[in-house]
Amino acid sequence: MLPFARITIVGLGLIGSSLARGIRTFTPTVRITGYDASAEVRETARRIDLCDDVADSAGAAVTDADLVILCVPVGMMGPVAAELADDLPAEAIVSDVGSCKASILAALRGALPQQRIVPAHPVAGTENSGPEAGFATLFRDRWCILTPEADCDPLAVEQVGDFWRRLGAQVEVMEAAHHDLVLAVTSHLPHLIAYTIVGTASDLEDVTRSEVIKYSAGGFRDFTRIAASDPTMWRDVFLANKDAVLEMLQRFSEDLSSLQRAIRWGDGDALFDLFSRTRAVRRSIIEQGQDDAKPDFGRSH
Amino acid sequence: MLPFARITIVGLGLIGSSLARGIRTFTPTVRITGYDASAEVRETARRIDLCDDVADSAGAAVTDADLVILCVPVGMMGPVAAELADDLPAEAIVSDVGSCKASILAALRGALPQQRIVPAHPVAGTENSGPEAGFATLFRDRWCILTPEADCDPLAVEQVGDFWRRLGAQVEVMEAAHHDLVLAVTSHLPHLIAYTIVGTASDLEDVTRSEVIKYSAGGFRDFTRIAASDPTMWRDVFLANKDAVLEMLQRFSEDLSSLQRAIRWGDGDALFDLFSRTRAVRRSIIEQGQDDAKPDFGRSH
């Protein structure tokens, strides 16, 4: 028994379009309605037959939905929710896929009359954007974190969890504030650092941009992948999860200063100790199925 | 006409064993002698038939070599060169594969009577170590940088370049000091940052190690790959290329502070500007064949 018969996806970028494809693939009887604020994206969605129906307004997209999933940048969650609030069936469950949860939860509570709001964050993605970048198996073996408020209808939480499991995800429930702290370190800080180093390398005088690109296989290229992620999405994440990101950034900077000092004073033992410790983390990630075991991410050689 | 008939590889880890396999595959008539300071590694090399001969001392390994390639950690280059100096044929060319060149050039000049020293750095690798981690195509389409001194025999430089091209590499010649500056940003700084963030994430109180691993697909896991690289190799790199690494680290820290300030003051435009700029770098790296065009490094989904 499927938890939902009619699902509306608002925002047809990488995640929204992956959801549409995943639903088509794994629960093909579900009727999918899509909407995107961009007329060009709506046109593409129609051309590639992404959804059963592409509506021309957020309101028209949700009129008969069981589940509405907002897949827009974090800063747009509140405005989009306000835009469709009047057309939303009273019994519909509203969810989202945003990367920080406390601010989204507050925005959705402020904009919607709904009691049944079940925020979600599938920890999955690629560096590509847009309706053609999505694929059905993006969420397979990845974690999807639900952050409902304590008074949320448990049945709604169960149904949204069931939905994600059918797309191949593993589901965890936690408080929004804790989510934001965890993701600040496992996702937001890595993106911030990657963006920074790619910027630093682009702005040198003694080393040309062309040299940076030619010799990027020494490690730098790994950082450029996540530094190619969607700029709007990531701007919003840092603004919305400011406190947790600044806290993690402070800790990182302290640790970096300590290594800087070890290098300056030639303290090889301190370097060796850290470099030996970090290998174990990689091993655990592979053992728990959160990355490829193949060397070099399985890049072709 | 092959540039060398008898090649000796000293150090049979990832790079040394990839060289042996590459020579076997692409120039199968060349006779390969190998040596490693570890008896266990020599035993493995014999078992997997990595070389035509595995010698039991560095001196015995080089007695009839045309080309000797040192594939040991940067800090061991000088001691290993001293160990084999007496047995080295006067006409043999000596090369290496170390990640910083000025300190190695000085160490080799100090330890060897040879005039024909052609230091090399193939900008290639994986996070794995040891004689069984190597493969013949590791150097294909990667750059190999040669850093001979100005008075080095041009024929020797040409022969070493020819050798690397036969393994599939592209060859560039530059001064050792410039190499060390370029690689400080494209390789050494990325490794330092990756090691740091993996350490930071391992040491939190409010977020458990288990949570870091579970939700690592949000970006963190990308950093764990290069933070799983060989600890001895990387300790030596940072000690040997101290000045250039500290200079790049200083620039990175300034840029990070500037982003930190933008987040604290909610300056979304500054964030968006940087995040838009960095996308172009990724595109250039892919266009120039230095990374896979497939999303997510081509990881399986």
Task: Please describe the topology of this protein.
Two copies of one chain form a homodimer.
Chain A: E1 6-10, H1 14-26, E2 31-35, H2 39-47, E3 53-54, H3 58-62, E4 67-70, H4 77-84, E5 93-96, H5 102-111, E6 120-122, E7 143-146, H6 154-166, E8 170-173, H7 176-202, H8 209-214, H9 220-226, H10 231-240, H11 242-264, H12 268-287
Helix pairs in contact in A: 4-5, 7-9, 7-11
GO biological process, one term (chains A, B): tyrosine biosynthetic process
Domain Prephenate/arogenate dehydrogenase (chains A, B): 5-293
Pathway (chains A, B): Amino-acid biosynthesis; L-tyrosine biosynthesis; (4-hydroxyphenyl)pyruvate from prephenate (NAD(+) route): step 1/1
Description:
Two copies of one chain form a homodimer. The first copy, chain A, has 301 residues and is of the alpha/beta class. The first copy, chain A, folds into two domains: 169 residues, NAD(P)-binding Rossmann-like Domain (Rossmann fold, 3-Layer(aba) Sandwich); 112 residues, 6-phosphogluconate dehydrogenase C-terminal fold (Orthogonal Bundle). Helix content of chain A is 50%, strand content 10%. The first copy, chain A, is built from twelve helices and eight strands. In chain A, the strands form two sheets. A five-stranded parallel β-sheet of chain A has the order 3-2-1-4-5, with helices on both faces. In chain A, α2 links the parallel β2 and β3. In chain A, α4 packs parallel to α5. The radius of gyration of chain A is 21 Å and the shape is globular. The N and C termini of chain A lie far apart (45 Å). The model of chain A has no long low-confidence stretch (mean pLDDT 96). At the A-B interface, α7, α8, α9, α10 and α11 of A face α7, α8, α9, α10 and α11 of B. Chains A, B: Belongs to the prephenate/arogenate dehydrogenase family. Chains A, B: Its EC number is 1.3.1.12. Chains A, B: It catalyses: prephenate + NAD(+) = 3-(4-hydroxyphenyl)pyruvate + CO2 + NADH. Chains A, B: One of its GO terms (biological process) is tyrosine biosynthetic process. Chains A, B: Keywords: Amino-acid biosynthesis, Aromatic amino acid biosynthesis, NAD, Oxidoreductase, Tyrosine biosynthesis.
